[in-house]
Design brief:
Helix content: 25-40%
Strand content: 25-35%
Structural class: alpha/beta
Number of helices: 5
Radius of gyration: 18 Å
Bound molecules: zinc ion
Number of domains: 1
Strand order of the largest sheet: 1-2-5-6-7
């Protein structure tokens, strides 16, 4: 700046993926599965569908093919609604933490996004996320129809065929 003033711009909240190490005890197999660490649903809209259809954060053992749900914590950011929701495993709240656990996680999240003009919340499990923020069972039914329509127009695309909804790899595609 010519006049010496500093303009501080807060960086956009961006989608981030990471890998998580998985292990299948009976097979003694290990593999790494992609997971969302944070998702901006404007740039990665399939995250919404992946949550509604509960297909995001699923993986399978490469040997016995047993499907597994991946337990992970991620932040869902909807820029249009100026909303960040941290999605945590459902068992956490049932494990006895209750309200105190919720408020502690909520306060952490407030601090994490303090420089952004967003409201935040914490949910435990995809079901709570769906009910509280994604439109409930009606939205689930609409997501099923949307996915079905997409499947019919993408015959021969192995990433869509025979799959009940977008997985993490699908969400990753832009
Ligand atoms: Zn296995």
């Amino acid at each position: 700046m010519a006049d010496g003033t500093r303009v501080e711009t807060t960086p956009e909240i961006m989608t981030e993926f990471t890998e998580i190490e998985m292990r299948c005890v009976p097979c003694n197999a290990s593999w790494s599965a992609p997971v969302v660490r944070r998702v901006n649903v404007a740039t990665h809209p399939d995250a919404r569908l992946g949550i509604l259809l509960k297909t995001m954060h699923r993986t399978a053992c490469p040997l016995c093919k047993k499907p597994r749900e991946i337990e992970t914590i991620f932040d869902y950011y909807d820029p249009e609604r100026k909303l960040v929701v941290q999605v945590r495993p459902a068992w956490e709240i049932r494990a006895g933490g209750g309200e105190d656990w919720y408020w502690a996680r909520y306060e952490d999240l407030v601090l994490k996004y303090a420089t952004y003009d967003v409201r935040v919340d914490v949910v435990f499990g995809f079901d709570e996320m769906i009910e509280k923020y994604l439109g409930g069972q009606e939205a689930v039914a609409a997501a099923r129809r949307e996915w079905e329509a997409r499947r019919q127009t993408s015959v021969g695309d192995a990433s869509v065929e025979g799959v009940e909804g977008p997985g993490t790899e699908e969400v990753r595609k832009v």
